[in-house]
Write a structure and sequence with these properties.
alpha+beta, 24 helices, four-stranded antiparallel beta sheet
């Protein structure tokens, strides 16, 4: 029987060092809150990579080995050779002993990476010279489309330099393995080196345990990158509550430097004063911080909404969203005899948006013009226009109302098609775009088909998002509930898309009196002109995601919450399907069924969001 290419073993085998005992002995007793995450309860994944060279961007992995440990016991192992897709340099073969023949039948790293990420999920990553190995992992995640979750990382080289000082002349893995009498010596093979690093890690943890390092947070804090100033500022978190909410770092002039949310305010803020925070900008922010203010919240939705409002109010320097967020563009029809589309920053009734960039709005504008026949020229046309038609008329892209060749009555169906598509009353303009794409593909004009498909995609995404947000914003009051995971309920009162009130009913508390109190105390929201009734699109989106999560129930609603029958959301699957315009293979039967179901959605009755599916 052939051996599996990737070997993952799970078990509980005791290591010779009683690490749990050594790292928890201390003369001073700490509370559980001060302890943080005890080292004896922390799961470490100690791993090593063998590669074709030293560049994470240009070189490839040839072998990966990892050992998962907790409390001095081995929980599992992960090991496989990896086909680098290229020849292994002779000097690497001489160093590791891994040859081209050995990796010929091995899996590529894009197959190995998801298995390793699953093996290491929720653990602290440990490596000898971790910058090298983590660099390869991060680059691979970026190449293959996996999010980098920013796990906590412990580098045994840096830890050894801090712990051992002048006790050893070198912090090479072989030297440390002999110093700590490792049961496995490093051989420049991934699994052997990972096993040796496990023994080195345990030896180092024994040393730091004797100086009072008992938790993961204290271990990360112990590393050299944490300055004395950062350690002193850790007292800023001492009196913070261990509750969900929003925190604000303030500078010496009381200005807001950074805003964030946390499920445990005290624990999250403390992490900024340890080596686990590696982002350069936030480390600079911590150096400037003079104090931390907090706003406790009843549940995660309230915290997220309060964070958005504080970001909009203060625009903190060190929040990325302060620089890149809150820019919205809208498409509106101009108020004239022959309306045209215009990109604006402030919406009004009947506007399409918001779009996150001006480029996306412009792409949707071009697609909407093509789908409906709205005039693309920007001149203002009077009711009694006369003159010579421009080149667009000769190209068949305009009926020349500027030259009197199209009357207002003849132009009205064009305007109705645009307003109907935006409001969700009509879907036929999208069929017109689809037919144009098919004609371009049939005539092998693939480049133009790709451009038109991207524009159509921008329009469909903008329509689908706008229609969903507008449907929620149109409801004057909605009360929803979600289980809190402990037998109680989390409540949200939403008015015109904005969170007006939030609260909880703990287990054993009658929920309906709580709902009545929340409704009575809820913020008054006066609707303003525009599709979202004046609510920020970001806040409506956050509330909508919370309402759409499985398990959410509608308690009461001032009017039925529904989306239009001809919503553009059903066309997302059509555009996601590969097509001849991009040179990709056709969709499989399952995907074609989903696409067909999306198209049929345009003929459905409006979806009542207060139906039995929410009960």
């Amino acid at each position: 029987m052939a051996k599996p290419l990737i070997r993952v073993s799970v078990g509980r085998r005791g290591y010779r060092r009683p690490v749990a005992a050594s790292i928890t002995s201390s003369s001073a007793q700490l509370s559980f809150d001060e302890l943080g995450t005890p080292l004896r309860s922390t799961t470490f994944v100690v791993f090593d990579l063998e590669t074709t060279g030293g560049s994470a961007q240009a070189d490839e992995v040839t072998e990966i080995g990892a050992v998962k440990v907790r409390g001095g016991e081995v929980l599992g192992q992960f090991h496989t050779l990896v086909d680098p897709g290229r020849g292994i340099p002779p000097e690497i073969v001489a160093l590791t002993g891994i040859t081209d023949a050995m990796v010929y039948t091995a899996p590529r790293f894009d197959r190995v990476l998801p298995a390793f990420l699953e093996f290491a999920a929720g653990s602290v990553l440990v490596a000898h010279n971790a910058g090298f190995d983590i660099g390869f992992l991060r680059a691979a995640c970026q190449r293959h489309g996996y999010p980098w979750r920013r796990p906590a990382v412990v580098c045994t080289v840096r830890l050894a330099r801090r712990v051992l000082g002048d006790e050893t002349h070198s912090c090479r893995l072989g030297v440390l393995a002999r110093l700590f009498r490792a049961s496995t010596m490093p051989t420049h093979r991934a699994l052997d080196d990972a096993k040796a690093t496990v023994d080195v890690l345990h030896g180092l943890l024994e040393r730091v345990g004797s100086v009072g390092v008992q938790s993961l947070e204290e271990l990360l804090d112990y590393l050299p990158e944490v300055t004395d100033e950062q350690r002193r500022k850790r007292s800023m978190a001492a009196d913070l509550p261990s509750e969900p909410g929003v925190y604000l770092f303030r500078g010496p002039r009381d200005e807001v430097l950074y805003v964030g949310t946390a499920s445990d305010l005290r624990r999250r803020v403390r992490q900024y004063f340890t080596a686990s925070e590696t982002r350069r900008g936030l480390r600079e922010m911590v150096r400037l911080a003079a104090r931390v203010d907090t706003v406790t919240c009843t549940h995660a939705l309230e915290a997220e909404v309060r964070e958005l409002r504080l970001l909009m109010a203060h625009k903190p320097t060190y929040n990325r969203r302060s620089k890149n967020g809150y820019r919205a563009w809208w498409l509106v029809l101009t108020d004239e005899a022959f309306p045209r589309l215009s990109v604006v920053r402030r919406p009004r009734d009947g506007a399409l948006g918001p779009f996150r960039s001006q480029a996306a709005a412009q792409a949707a504008l071009l697609a909407l013009q093509e789908a409906t026949g709205l005039r693309p020229c920007t001149i203002r046309i009077s009711r009694s226009a006369s003159g010579r038609p421009c080149a667009l008329f000769e190209l068949g892209r305009c009926a020349a109302p500027c030259a009197g060749r199209q009357t207002i009555e003849e132009y009205l169906p064009v305007v109705d098609a645009a307003t109907g598509l935006i409001s969700g009353r009509r879907i036929d303009p999208l069929h017109r775009l689809e037919q144009r794409l098919e004609r371009l593909v049939a005539t092998e004009r693939f480049e133009q088909a790709g451009v038109d498909r991207d524009r159509m995609g921008a329009l469909v995404r903008g329509l689908a998002r706008a229609q969903r947000l507008a449907a929620l914003a149109a409801v004057s009051e909605l009360v929803a509930a979600r289980p809190d995971g402990a037998g109680g309920w989390e409540f949200a009162v939403v008015r015109h898309g904005r969170l007006a009130s939030a609260g909880v009913a703990r287990r054993g508390v009658s929920p309906m009196p709580v709902v009545a109190q929340l409704v009575a105390a809820a913020e008054t929201v006066i609707p303003e002109p525009g599709p979202l009734c004046g609510a920020p699109a970001e806040e409506v989106g956050v509330v909508l995601r919370w309402l759409d999560r499985p398990g959410t129930r509608l308690v009461q609603c001032a009017r039925p919450w529904f989306e239009p029958a001809a919503s553009a959301a059903g066309w997302r699957g059509v555009l996601a399907a590969p097509s001849a315009a991009t040179g990709e293979p056709p969709a499989g039967p399952a995907r074609q069924d989903r696409i067909a179901a999306g198209r049929r959605r345009a003929g459905r009755e409006p979806r009542d969001r207060t139906g039995a599916d929410r009960s």
